[in-house]
Each structure stands twice: as structure tokens, then as C-alpha cells.
Amino acid sequence: MSLESAIKKATSSELTEDDWGQLLDIVDLVKSNPDEYITESISVVKSRLNSGNANVILRTITLIDFLAENCGAMMKGEISKKSFVNDNLVKLVQDNHTHNNVKHFQRLEEKLSIHV
């Protein structure tokens, strides 16, 4: 399975809770070739954050946290870039059209230190 397919499966709109097995599979895949897969995973994650579907966004936020915690310094560096945070996460929290469940998702607010 491709990385993009794995991320789409783990962040499916049909999921109402996180699938830890799928998240671990994604981590293993990224760690198998970080030079290629970190950039690709960030690209797919950005598109999933812009989906407009609360379930997809919530699963994607969990995936971001999981990638940051398990894929090393290179991944943390990409996720913590000002452009990624501001253009994706802060924008998501500040958007009036973002579902309240997403805005008040505890981990997102804590990580960004944003009050909505």
C-alpha cells in the first residue's frame, strides 16, 4: 500500500475513532525511507486537514501527533515549521467554518496554545 493510501485509510471520514494499528503502519512506512516519505506524508496531511470533514480532520490531527512522537527529529522539524503550523493548524482553529469538535480538540489547542 502506498503512503498516501495508508494515510487516507487512517484518516477516513468513516472512522469515528483512531485506528492505532494503521497509525503504526504509517510510522513504520515513513521510518523505512524518511528522506522520501516525510515530505510526502506532510503533503498528504495538509490535504487531509483541508478536507472540511470533522472526522477526517480529527484523525489527521492524531496522525500529526503520532508522526511527531514516533518519526524522529526530521519529522518534528517539518511539523513545527512556522509555515506548516500557521498555514494549516492555526488557520484550521481560526476558521469559522471548522467544526467545533475540531476547534476544541484538546491536543490541538494545547499544542498551539490558542484560545478560540
UniProtKB/TrEMBL annotation:
Signal peptide: none annotated. GO terms for cellular component: ESCRT-0 complex. One of its GO terms (biological process) is protein transport to vacuole involved in ubiquitin-dependent protein catabolic process via the multivesicular body sorting pathway. GO terms for molecular function: phosphatidylinositol binding; ubiquitin binding. Residues 10-103 form the VHS domain. CDD domains: VHS_HSE1 (cd16978). SMART domains: VHS. It comes from the Eukaryota. PANTHER family: JAK PATHWAY SIGNAL TRANSDUCTION ADAPTOR MOLECULE. This is Unnamed protein product.
